């Protein structure tokens, strides 16, 4: 199914898009404002998904859920949040596919099974969900969505283990792929990360409440303190007795999605002890060390290119200028992926400042190129504004392979770097030269403690093999 193209409020088109953000909170106070706090957490995670939002709350043993299509601010108002006070809550924001069952795919997913009530919010993609779903359907299971999350819920419900934690453990041991999830049971919360640790998940604390979130920026908004990241292959259980954890899988090589550092995560988030903005700045500095181009100005593509452009300017000594203005009031628009409309959308969103650019040799910095549509339009605008030369510099290596672990990349034939050489891409986008950060330089720019990285979309080295027909490798 082709995916609609979203225009993120912060980034631009022609980016890989995050699939989801998850949040969970457990309070020892049975009437705490967990609904409001989850709302704030989801608001901070909005960049991870703008298609739908949902919150499920445990109110004295009764689960109450509200979810709908749209941004967090559109889905919830004060009246709805007033009804979502309780002792625990989980929430979810989703970047979704097109199709007729969009609301059915909104999360959290709430099920009532022989082990009690269970709500699940999940970020990531399973690579064996089609296979498991096929087997479950053959055994009589009925699915209401296309969510991988529902596969997990069915596995828990059908598990021969009576205890819900054991059933959950048993279920997670059967699934393969990327998952960072938060679940709510009658007693508390469960948080778990896949054995490879593809997607982020952190634990925080505010007063007596424990919080779990995709990114630490969700803690800051409520003055919560970061405790630590959930470890790959770890299950964390939070209830009235406190917090405990164990590993549900044998140790695997840590393959954290490096694109979280390049583009997806919010710059104020901390992953593995590393601030994301500072990592991006270091990528810009490294890019400057790897490039030999003389220029008058360094200009970021607004939003996504700023931290790397700052680092590039620091290292190279070439002045940094905001030579392209972003219209802040475009909002979010879903568009069909036709070439003409893509071009128009970029022009609505961005405008070069002629007085800064005219007669200058400029280096434009962005974090990545997926199809090349945005870069081409930006360069065309900057040249029309009178730039003498335009050199494009990208703070990541060429994206040559699609992602199967939860990110919306194009199919391989749509990735410009999968089809063209760097010189050909430069010609296609109209740049006088094009430079990418090396993979080694990228890895050296990040200082997350004890982290290993997935770089599959750059080198095609997939750590978990894909092959159930769900994905099309070509
Ligand atoms: S393939 Fe790329 S986008 Fe996907 S998880 Fe790996 S690094 Fe991230």
UniProtKB/TrEMBL annotation:
Q: What is its EC number?
A: 2.4.2.14
Q: Which residues bind [4Fe-4S] cluster?
A: 257, 403, 454, 457
CDD domains associated with the record? GPATase_N, PRTases_typeI
- Cofactor note (record): Binds 1 [4Fe-4S] cluster per subunit.
Give residue ranges for domain Glutamine amidotransferase type-2.
Answer: 20-241
Active site annotation, chain numbering: 20 (nucleophile)
Instruction: Report the InterPro entries cross-referenced here.
Output: GATase_2_dom, Ntn_hydrolases_N, PRTase-like, PRTase_dom, PurF, PurF_N
- What family classification does the UniProt entry report for this protein? In the C-terminal section; belongs to the purine/pyrimidine phosphoribosyltransferase family.
Q: What is the name of this protein?
A: Amidophosphoribosyltransferase
């Amino acid at each position: 199914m082709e995916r609609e193209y979203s225009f993120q409020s912060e980034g631009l088109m022609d980016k890989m898009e995050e699939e989801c953000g998850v949040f969970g909170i457990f309070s020892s106070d049975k009437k705490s404002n967990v609904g409001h706090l989850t709302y704030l957490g989801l608001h901070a995670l909005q960049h991870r998904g703008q298609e739908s939002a949902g919150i499920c709350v445990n109110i004295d043993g009764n689960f109450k859920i509200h979810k709908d299509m749209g941004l967090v601010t559109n889905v919830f108002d004060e009246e709805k949040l007033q009804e979502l006070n309780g002792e625990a809550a989980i929430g979810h924001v989703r970047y979704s596919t097109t199709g007729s069952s969009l609301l059915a795919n909104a999360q959290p997913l709430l099920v009532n099974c022989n082990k009690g009530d269970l709500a699940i919010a999940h970020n990531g993609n399973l690579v064996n969900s089609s296979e498991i779903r096929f087997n479950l359907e053959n055994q009589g299971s009925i699915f209401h969505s296309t969510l991988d999350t529902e596969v997990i819920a069915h596995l828990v419900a059908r598990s021969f283990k009576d205890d819900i934690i054991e059933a959950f453990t048993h279920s997670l041991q059967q699934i393969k792929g990327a998952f960072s999830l938060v679940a709510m049971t009658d007693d508390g919360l469960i948080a778990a990360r896949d054995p490879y640790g593809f997607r982020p998940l952190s634990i925080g604390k505010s007063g007596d409440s424990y919080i779990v979130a995709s990114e630490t920026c969700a803690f800051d908004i409520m003055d919560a303190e970061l405790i630590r990241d959930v470890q790959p292959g770890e299950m964390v259980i939070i209830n009235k007795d406190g917090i405990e954890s164990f590993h549900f899988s044998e140790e695997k090589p840590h393959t954290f999605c490096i694109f979280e550092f390049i583009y997806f995560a919010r710059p104020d988030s901390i992953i593995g002890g590393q601030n994301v903005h500072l990592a991006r700045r270091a990528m810009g500095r490294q890019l400057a060390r790897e490039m030999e181009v003389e220029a008058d100005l360094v200009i970021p593509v607004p939003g996504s290119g700023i931290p790397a452009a700052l680092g590039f300017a620091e290292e190279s000594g070439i002045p940094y200028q905001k030579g392209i203005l972003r219209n802040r009031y475009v909002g979010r628009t879903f568009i069909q992926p036709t070439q003409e409309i893509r071009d128009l959308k970029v022009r609505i969103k961005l405008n070069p400042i002629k007085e800064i650019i005219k007669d200058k040799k400029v280096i434009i910095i962005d974090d990545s190129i997926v199809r090349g549509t945005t870069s081409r339009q930006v360069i065309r605008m900057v040249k029309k504004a009178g730039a003498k030369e335009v050199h494009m510099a990208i703070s990541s290596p060429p994206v040559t392979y699609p992602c199967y672990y939860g990110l919306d990349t194009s199919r391989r034939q749509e990735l410009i770097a999968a089809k063209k050489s760097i010189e050909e891409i430069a010609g296609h986008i109209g740049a006088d030269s094009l430079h990418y950060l090396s993979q080694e330089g990228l890895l050296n720019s990040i200082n997350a403690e004890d982290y290993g990285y997935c770089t599959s979309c750059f080198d095609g080295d997939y750590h978990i093999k894909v092959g159930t027909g769900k994905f099309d490798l070509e």
